[in-house]
Design goal:
3 domains; flavoprotein; Butyryl-CoA Dehydrogenase, subunit A, domain 3; alpha+beta; oxidoreductase; Acyl-CoA_Oxase/DH_mid-dom_sf; AcylCoA_DH/oxidase_NM_dom_sf; AcylCo_DH-like_C; 8 strands; 10 helices; single chain
Length: 392
Amino acid sequence: MYFDDYFVTSPEQRERLRITKELADAFAQRAAKYDEDGSFPHENIADLRKSGYVTWTVPKEYGGLEISLQELLLHQEQLARGDGSTALAIGWHVGMILNLRASHAFPDTIFQAICQSVMDTGALINSCASEPATGSPSRGGRPETTATQVDGGYRITGRKTFSTLSPALDWILVTAGIADSDEVGEFIVRGQDVRIVETWNTLGMRATGSHDIVLEDVFVPHSHVVTVKHPKERSLRNNDGGGWMLHIPACYLGVGLAARDFAMNFAATYQPNSLSHPIADVPHIEEKLGQMELKLLSARTLMYDLAARWDASSEADRPRLRPRFGAAKTQATTAAYEVVDLAMRVVGARSLAKGLPLERYYRDVRAGLHNPPMDDIVFKMLAKEGTAPFRK
């Protein structure tokens, strides 16, 4: 796998990137099997724990490296070059830890306990908020999952969909409507206390383990209640502007880079007997290769520039970057599937073969269109920001 360090800014980043490259190389060898089976990549997750990667975004005060957002994207992109499903799945964990350390959304006692478990055992966390009836929480629907107050805490019953990383989660942030109230609560639930229903059988990103999780009268003590708020109150996790969500475009750009690498290698080495040179020198192939480079360079430059700006910004200024983060996601996912399409045109009919990775890349990048934020929300945010100075 080609080692790309164009956006690396320090020797320390470069050394850590070598670790994630080794992981990505190993993931690439297993990706086809996990994709074909639609099974969860337990071996990959074990490697990520063993390498210490799952701890890298933990704050230094709790023993982690506290890497920057910009560096996190380097690693997520690299992991996705090996296996998009594994990268997307683990991205929710490392991204959420970064989000929590920047937003201060959790009470200190809860966040410290979670970080300590990550450091001690490689514990993993994700937020599970989508539901069959309400869809994405970003659309504003009230959770049908219900929390009923009892002595010492709450009992929660409900079902969550698209629960990525579910087979490996130790901690789950769950949203639930408070019974006999219009309030909504956020609760930390232990992974061992939920039931997983294996519903994830999709076109792309087949190995993310995004199954349904079912909560059946799960007791949550007061010590694991994050917040109880009125419906129109935004979660404190939004305080950081959502920069951590750039792990999503980083993943899809990583898949696009893998497709680019495959097509470049093919074009540079394939020489049919009708030509005296490799097809990389054929004008229409050369044009497609150049288009791929431009699309990736543009999308990656925007993403890494915004990440660097987020890292350098004050906590008060970070929320202003939210529309631009959405723009980076839309541009990246669009670029990724356009690049994969171009790569397949370069390789030709061979690109459809199950024994080659391009058809998997093609399916995986389509999933990016359905990861948040959705394009319509992005365009709405950008339009409102653009017209704001001209409104009376």
